[in-house]
Design brief:
Layout: H1 3-6, E1 12-18, E2 22-29, E3 36-39, H2 43-56, E4 59-66, H3 73-91, E5 100-107, E6 110-117, E7 123-127, H4 146-158, E8 161-168, H5 172-190
Parallel strand pairs: 3-4, 7-8
Antiparallel strand pairs: 1-2, 2-4, 5-6, 6-8
């Protein structure tokens, strides 16, 4: 075996998206050291993205500017799209990955269940309810309801099946952070290479 053949291919991607509402760039390395860094103009969202990179074991850099004076929705959704595209590109044909993962993740009083399949079939089942008058987090404010829009954009672009369910929890910050950490840990497990074949009887995902 040559030196070149003994070094595994780098699973990474760099993606950009520019619209009249946002400009987003993402750099992603799946086999990283958990170095998550984000600058979106939404400090709480940045914190969640950093948690995602850290606990997935990804090296992740996210940069975004958007029309936050209108609403945070465009920025959050477009970051989800670009991150999902980067993950799909980094995974390639998915040969050898574990594919499935699940976890019940606690954070103080909050407990969130997450199950994930790198299926190639986008589907989000998100059952994380918040009271109608729940306060936004951070400044500029991040509406907790936007987390669902982020995950929907992410799974659609990445081709993932993702279930996120709140079992119990009262503190909004704890609930959202547990959900991001739970998805991160599932991604860490699901994209781990442990074989050489595509994990599907169809021969592709």
């Amino acid at each position: 075996m040559s030196a070149a053949e003994s070094v595994p291919a780098r699973r990474g991607s760099r993606r950009e998206r520019r619209t009249g509402e946002t400009a987003v760039s993402v750099e992603l390395a799946l086999d990283g050291a958990g170095a998550g860094e984000a600058s979106t103009g939404l400090p709480f969202f940045d914190h969640m993205l950093a948690q995602l990179g850290k606990h997935a074991g990804f090296d992740l850099v996210v940069s975004a500017t958007g029309d936050l004076e209108v609403d945070a929705h465009h920025t959050v959704e477009d970051v989800g799209i670009v991150l999902g595209e980067a993950l799909a590109e980094a995974l390639g044909d998915k040969a050898g990955i574990r594919r499935f993962a699940s976890i019940a993740l606690p954070l103080d009083e909050a407990l969130v269940q997450v199950a994930l399949d790198c299926s190639g079939r986008p589907y989000l089942a998100y059952d994380v309810p918040f009271p109608d008058q729940v306060a936004p987090l951070g400044n500029p404010p991040f509406d907790p309801q936007l987390a669902e829009e982020f995950w929907r954009a992410f799974v659609t672009a990445a081709g993932l099946t993702l279930h996120v369910r709140l079992v119990v929890g009262r503190n909004t910050h704890h609930v959202l952070e547990a959900s991001f950490k739970g998805v991160a840990r599932c991604l860490r497990d699901a994209v781990r290479v442990e074989g050489g074949e595509v994990p599907s009887t169809k021969g592709r995902l």
